[in-house]
Design brief:
Mean pLDDT: 85
Low-confidence stretches: none
Organism: Planococcus shenhongbingii
Number of strands: 2
Distance between the termini: 36 Å
Order of helices and strands: HHHHHHHHEEHHHHHHHHHHHHHH
Keywords: Membrane, Transmembrane, Transmembrane helix
Helix content: over 70%
Pfam families: TctA
Structural class: mainly alpha
InterPro entries: DUF112_TM (IPR002823)
Shape: globular
Protein name: Tripartite tricarboxylate transporter permease
Strand content: under 5%
Strand order of the largest sheet: 1-2
Number of helices: 22
């Protein structure tokens, strides 16, 4: 069966009534998550995992996994759309990938062109979403075929590269990011060892024999951590919201934005494919590029429409590109894709090269649903932009209890143990303390997901080589991946030592 046939089969799954509803709910919630400052895509996706698990409880495993991942991915790329709204109207980015949109978006709003900025952001995001999906369709099959040739040594090195990439660029301090990575790897070792049957770090507590549940830790660190931050730091926004006038852009606006949208989409897609790079870097690079390409660079920062069109296209294309390493190689390139991967593993579905062979319903159903979801987002964001703007004014006193209730009820509905509720609370406090002290939590979650897989592949590789560690450097692909991983950590360090500034990926 060729790629087109697989994609058509994917559409037959995406057009099932329950999956249309799941995609719609995902993009709607995602836009709201992006609009609300403070709740990023990681918190939104983590919070909804237990909700989707409960909603899909009666379905067969594959259908449940497909429906869940359709909703969760919708939240991810929907948040990229929504993030621009607060950047443009309030000068407050909804999430880190929309930071550069404030530079020209808010200036346009002050000049009475908020509607044009919002609609160009929506059109750019739609075009970028479709371009990155076409790239995903074209690259998914060949990449997974290459990955099928990988042995345990190559997989071990590839996963180390994934960890190094996220740790090298996450947060303000690489030392803190690496500490978080090691902490995540340590948490991943708790439980009964699958090979030797020995209990590790369980202290004779039966509930720890199966290890710490990824879902509880992700919801605690991201969703509850954000609640504690808002309550304890009295994190209230009091900015003045700009008025939205005419929504449709003029013909000149469309002409000025066409090339930046195309350039931003392509750049964002290729940056998104790289593990650790993510949407924040894509939007920064797009802005810098557009300023260099522009005939009037002095207009940037004063309301240039290219300064909105390019970065907004780039951050959306990056979220599509980030699905490639996740789906084809089983390596999440960011914190949000690590959470998506954890959600798939919960359904006993392992992302990676065998995903397209063993579970085509899930892989192609998700890809097809993203085409549908992007169209829904364009329809939602153009005429309903004024409604979404109202969400910004939702008082925190209503929002926070909803997040707390979903966190506790959701985790208990999936785990059925009070231990997980205590763990959830502890992770919430820990998440707050870590973020307050600039410790990035995305590397911790990524290490927790990848840790057991890294250990498993290392053991298999050492079994093949009779315990010789040289297998990791004698294999050419493994050696190249290890060199790239080392470079990913060392290059930013050397640049910092030379006094050069390094662009960081706060999205994780």
């Amino acid at each position: 069966m060729n790629t087109l046939q697989f994609l058509m089969d994917g559409f037959s799954i995406a057009f099932q009534w329950q999956n249309i509803l799941f995609a719609f709910a995902g993009v709607l919630i995602g836009t709201a998550v992006g609009v609300l400052p403070g709740i990023g895509p990681m918190s939104g996706v983590a919070l909804l995992i237990p909700v989707t698990a409960t909603l899909t409880a009666g379905l067969p495993t594959e259908a449940a996994a497909a429906s869940s991942i359709i909703l969760l991915a919708g939240v991810y790329y929907g948040a990229m759309y929504g993030g621009s709204t607060t950047s443009i109207l309030l000068n407050t980015p909804g999430e880190s990938s929309s930071v550069v949109t404030t530079l020209d978006g808010y200036q346009m709003a002050k000049q009475g062109r908020a509607g044009a900025a919002l609609s160009i952001a929506a059109i750019g995001s739609f075009a970028a979403g479709i371009i990155s999906l076409i790239g995903l369709v074209l690259l998914a099959e060949p990449l997974s075929n290459i990955a099928l040739e990988f042995g345990p040594a190559e997989y071990f090195s590839l996963m180390l590269l994934g960890l190094a990439a996220v740790s090298g660029l996450a947060g303000k301090s690489m030392t803190k990011a690496l500490m978080m990575t090691v902490f995540g790897l340590m948490l991943g070792t708790i439980g009964i060892d699958a090979v030797s049957g020995i209990a590790r770090f369980t202290y004779d507590i039966p509930v720890l024999y199966s290890g710490l549940e990824f879902l509880t830790i992700a919801v605690g660190l991201f969703a509850l951590g954000e609640v504690f931050k808002t309550v304890l730091e009295r994190d209230h926004e009091d900015g003045t919201m700009a008025k939205i006038g005419r929504i449709l852009p003029t013909r000149q606006d469309l002409k000025d934005s066409a090339a930046p949208i195309m350039r931003g989409s392509l750049l964002g897609f290729f940056i998104g494919v790289l593990p650790g790079a993510g949407a924040t870097l894509a939007s920064f690079f797009s802005y810098i590029g557009e300023k260099k390409f522009s005939k009037n660079p002095e207009q940037f920062g004063k309301g240039a429409i290219a300064g909105v069109a390019g970065p907004e296209s780039a951050n959306n294309a990056a979220s599509g590109g980030a699905m490639i390493p996740l789906l084809t190689l089983g390596i999440p390139g960011s914190g949000t894709t690590a959470i998506l991967m954890g959600a798939l593993i919960m359904y006993n579905i392992q992302p990676g090269p065998l995903l397209f062979e063993d579970h085509p319903e899930v892989a192609w159903g998700l890809i097809a649903s993203m085409f549908v979801g992007n169209l829904m987002l364009l329809i939602l964001n153009m005429p309903l932009v004024k409604v979404f703007a109202k969400i910004i004014q939702t008082p925190k006193k209503y929002l926070l209890p909803i997040i707390i209730a979903i966190s506790f009820f959701g985790v208990y509905a999936v785990q059925y143990t009070t231990f997980d509720l205590y763990l959830l609370l502890a992770c919430g406090v820990l998440g707050y303390l870590l973020t307050k002290n600039d410790f990035p939590v995305a590397p911790l979650v990524l290490a927790l997901v990848l840790g057991p897989m890294i250990e498993n592949n290392m053991r298999r590789a050492l079994t093949i080589s009779n315990g010789e560690f040289s297998i990791f450097v004698s294999n050419p692909i493994s050696l190249v991946l290890l060199i790239v991983a080392a470079a990913w950590l060392l290059v930013p360090l050397l640049l910092k030592l030379k006094g050069r500034s390094v662009v960081l990926n706060e999205e994780g």
